[in-house]
């Protein structure tokens, strides 16, 4: 029934956008009428009160205020408009104006965007931001435009941690026989396969029930996502590995962005930058808060796993197939220089 509702909603949305295409997308030369009004939909796959929701609300508030009502933005959280992959297709085709899409979710379009989500690629937030806000981030934005996406900003999700119901995870060997849920992202699947887990793919909205029913034993996500989605209610063990850094690509259909007049483009970009700042501040504050809250929610929390053993179990060459060896090597070189300075 839920799937049927999603399909009907998406079909209706597509018909409305096609029917109102001139009002929504403007002309293709970036010379739109300053009196033209817009109604944009913004979708993402997590709860409304998640960090993506913080970014979405910040963006909506600024754009609507700065445009004096020219632009109206409707926010659709929790996969209301479809899965992350389905929403990416909608943005790509122009059926959906904007999305807060995970970096890994864009692998099918821009494999290079997964470089920061490789296991243990970055050690902290500052390193991640240095990559995304620098030349490599600019290069990734350019690749996205070639595929029909305008990346307005790189908002934050944070570092992933492992939860499970089998045993405390202190080293890779502890993952043997543990059924770990992964999103349908080749890099995540490869990483946990290398670490020795049994990997199952599953939509994020199905994870809680999958854990509750024993279909899967564990999962990995940032602390905020673990708490906000009540994962702690159905898991016994938490391990602080910081193995993946997750960011979100705040994307808009590129043709839509290019059709906007320069003033509106500037408003959109400035609002997205503020959304980026808000998400980064929120994530770092929440990480500390969530760890304090979750200390009483798990049977055991492993705070000092053998990270060196985890890192040694990873073969980066295996990821060249999914991400590209050149971008991996250049990112590693950039980070080596960044750490040295």
TrEMBL record:
Localization in the cell: Cell envelope
Predominant cellular place of this UniProt entry's protein: other
Keywords: Signal, Transport
Keyword presence, Thylakoid: no
A biological-process GO annotation: transmembrane transport
Keyword Transmembrane: no
Signal peptide: 1-21
GO cellular component terms attached to this protein's record: outer membrane-bounded periplasmic space
Highest taxon in the source lineage: Bacteria
Transmembrane segments: none
Coiled coil, from the record: none
PANTHER family named among the record's database cross-references: PTHR33376, SIALIC ACID-BINDING PERIPLASMIC PROTEIN SIAP
Family (UniProt): Belongs to the bacterial solute-binding protein 7 family.
Listed name of the protein: 2,3-diketo-L-gulonate-binding periplasmic protein YiaO
Naturally occurring in which organism (per UniProt): Oceanobacillus oncorhynchi
Lineage: Bacteria, Bacillati, Bacillota, Bacilli, Bacillales
């Amino acid at each position: 029934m839920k799937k049927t509702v999603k399909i009907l909603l998406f079909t209706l949305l597509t018909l409305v956008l096609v029917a109102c295409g001139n009002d929504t997308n403007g002309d293709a030369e970036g010379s739109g009428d300053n009196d033209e009004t817009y109604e944009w939909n913004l979708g993402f796959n997590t709860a409304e009160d998640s960090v993506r929701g913080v970014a979405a609300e910040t963006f909506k508030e600024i754009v609507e205020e700065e445009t004096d009502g020219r632009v109206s933005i409707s926010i659709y959280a929790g996969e209301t408009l479809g899965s992350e992959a389905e929403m990416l297709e909608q943005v790509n085709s122009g059926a959906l104006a904007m999305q807060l899409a995970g970096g890994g979710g864009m692998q099918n379009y821009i494999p290079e965007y997964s470089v920061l989500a490789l296991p243990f690629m970055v050690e902290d937030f500052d390193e991640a931001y240095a990559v995304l806000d620098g030349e490599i981030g600019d290069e990734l934005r350019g690749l996205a435009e070639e595929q029909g996406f305008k990346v307005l900003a790189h908002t934050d999700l944070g570092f992933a941690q492992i939860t499970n119901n089998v045993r405390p995870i202190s080293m890779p060997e502890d993952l043997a026989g543990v059924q770990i849920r992964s999103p349908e992202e080749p890099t995540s699947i490869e990483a946990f396969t290398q670490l020795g887990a049994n990997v199952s793919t599953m939509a994020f909205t199905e994870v809680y029930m999958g854990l509750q029913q024993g279909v899967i034993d564990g999962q990995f996500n940032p602390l905020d996502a673990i708490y906000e989605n009540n994962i702690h209610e159905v898991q016994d063990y938490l391990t602080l590995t910081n193995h993946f850094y997750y960011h979100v690509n705040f994307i808009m259909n590129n043709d839509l962005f290019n059709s906007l007049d320069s003033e509106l483009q500037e408003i959109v970009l400035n609002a997205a930058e503020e959304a980026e700042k808000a998400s980064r501040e929120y994530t770092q504050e929440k990480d500390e808060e969530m760890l304090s809250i979750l200390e009483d929610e798990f049977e055991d929390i492993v705070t000092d796993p053998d990270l060196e053993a985890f890192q040694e179990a990873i073969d980066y060459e295996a990821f060249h197939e999914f991400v590209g060896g050149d971008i991996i090597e250049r990112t590693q070189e950039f980070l080596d220089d960044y750490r040295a300075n």
